[in-house]
């Protein structure tokens, strides 16, 4: 079996697109199509459904995809085992909540890149729930999530302790919590869960939620008077320099959230181990 054809097939399934798989591999789209077609001929089965939206795996294709994930995981393990631990190379895929990525990670990632320039770094942001799923599927190497995370397949280490603040427009110090619009990230965000828990504790069970897609959008909309939100103090201090914001402190049981770095127990990546060592030196709870 052509390992590059299998890789092209795996990328096509992951992205749902032949063209995106080609871009990821730096191949032409026709080259990827030919490789997958030859793989289908060799295995005497159809692996992909082609449709207007891209492509998706057939039942046999899904079965092969699961094998492909394990095959490339084994290849990665072999490469890690052969690496020079003082000069790691390869990829390091980091996931993070958007708030952590915005205010906690830039200096850490820049320092890591200076020390280990041969490692190809990537960062994706999404809520805690999706990040945990990505770690379990080996889609990313490590993720900054809201703790505590307890799972038999995961390692979790608390790296930041965030003081949470209720953020509101500077010109509305007397806002009414019961009538205010609550600005949040999409479902799966731990800060959203904490804010809703606080509202219920205050006896507020009916409220208006508005989901926004980015931290910048949430902060900007709060400053414009659209609503209120819950964010770490470190985020408030960063954005209060540019936006007219005020805050309210929360009762102790809602005021602190730990950020943990999680990784899979079966991921022996040398780039990941070097990242963990750097993080332990730099992070202060």
From TrEMBL:
> What are the UniProt keywords, alphabetically?
DNA-binding, Transcription, Transcription regulation
The cross-references to Pfam families, in alphabetical order and at most eight, read: HTH_1, LysR_substrate
Give the matching CDD domains: PBP2_YofA_SoxR_like
Q: Which family does it belong to?
A: Belongs to the LysR transcriptional regulatory family.
UniProt name for this protein: HTH lysR-type domain-containing protein
Q: Does the keyword DNA-binding apply?
A: yes
- Keyword Nucleotide-binding recorded: no
Q: Report a single Gene Ontology molecular function.
A: transcription cis-regulatory region binding
Q: Which residues form the HTH lysR-type domain?
A: 1-58
InterPro entries cross-referenced by the UniProt entry: LysR_HTH_N, LysR_subst-bd, WH-like_DNA-bd_sf, WH_DNA-bd_sf
